[in-house]
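Progress against Task 2.4 (sequence-to-structure conversion) is shown through the following example record, which the project officer requested during the mid-term review.
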Amino acid sequence: MEYLSILMKKMKDENSSGKHKGDGHRKRLRERFLDSGLSGFLDYEIIELLLTLGTPRKDCKQAAKDAIEKFRGLAGVLNSTINELQQVDGIGPSNAFGIKLFQAISERYSKEKIEFKTIFDSPKMIAEYLRGKIGRENKEYFITLFFDTRNNLIVHDISVGTLNASLVHPREVFSQAIVKNASHVVVAHNHPSGDATPSEADILTTKRLIEAGEIIGISVVDHIIVTKDGYCSLKEKGVIKNPKNNT
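Structure tokens generated for the chain above:
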């Protein structure tokens, strides 16, 4: 009984001081990062560090290891939705905060890279932005990126639906482009199935948009299909040629 009393007192003291057994480990992780960045970090340690941002009093090591195993590596974890992450024991809405924050920062950074760089020869750069925007969604989204004559992203417009819906009709796409005074557009949609391969409908829709754009004088410079892990550019596949007025 004396031993039990001592143990209870120790636990009480630790709780009252706001500390737990993982505090020292977390401190060492953060000090390693501040000293040398992520050099020498194992994949699960990176996820563990992110999980600790939203978990003040819980050991995250095992959850991080389980997430790496379930999603087959660091990229798989970082590309997962919050609902997918919560399938891992020990990960909930609160401690998924750090990963969600990483995804949001990546999306913002990718958007700024698009806004300040010429992008016609870099579908990958646009795809990185789009993957953060709609790549992880479990519904199909269609998005149009509007650009001015200096290749600056003016704004984007997102609709929920499918490629067979009226929202992808050339009238809908180009009426917005005219209102926004866009010089050219990039259209894109996601494949929730995870397969970025274009369907026949994708290709036919792309050709229809290109023809309508040529009549109006607003070029469709690419159609990009994204998933959470990859992308397909119809420009890279040769479906879309370089517009004469933009080469």
